[in-house]
Amino acid sequence: MPFEVKVESDKLLQQFEDMQTRVTELDQKLPQVFLDWQREDMNRKFPKVDEHSGLSVTTLVYPRSRKKRVRKSSSGKSTNRKPARRVVGTTRPILRPELVVQLFDRMKQMCREAIEWR
User: Fold this and answer.
1) How much is the pTM?
2) In b/e form, how buried is each residue of 10-44, taking b as 16+ CB within 10 angstroms?
3) In this structure, is residue 112 part of a structural domain?
């Protein structure tokens, strides 16, 4: 019983070449995905990429708000008491674990789109 397999390599080769092209274009798409993450998920008004080389993107994320923490003392109170102080700014970390997960999800989606069979 003879067994024959016929493969049209031109179509397969074309798919691999297309996939390779999409993978090599990732370094151009990565900064935009990173900026979208900052704009949409981190709610940054002015997203910024500090460094970009190949498939590496860097930005500076402050641990807390960039606003200076100003202590305002109450006025018109007795000097014998300790003045009540209010801290302006937030103590919530900017780069929270859920934001890191969202960034990973965006990067995984970008890679899936590049490596997908079409």
Assistant:
1) 0.64
2) eeeeeeeeeeeebeeebeeebeeebbebbeebbee
3) yes
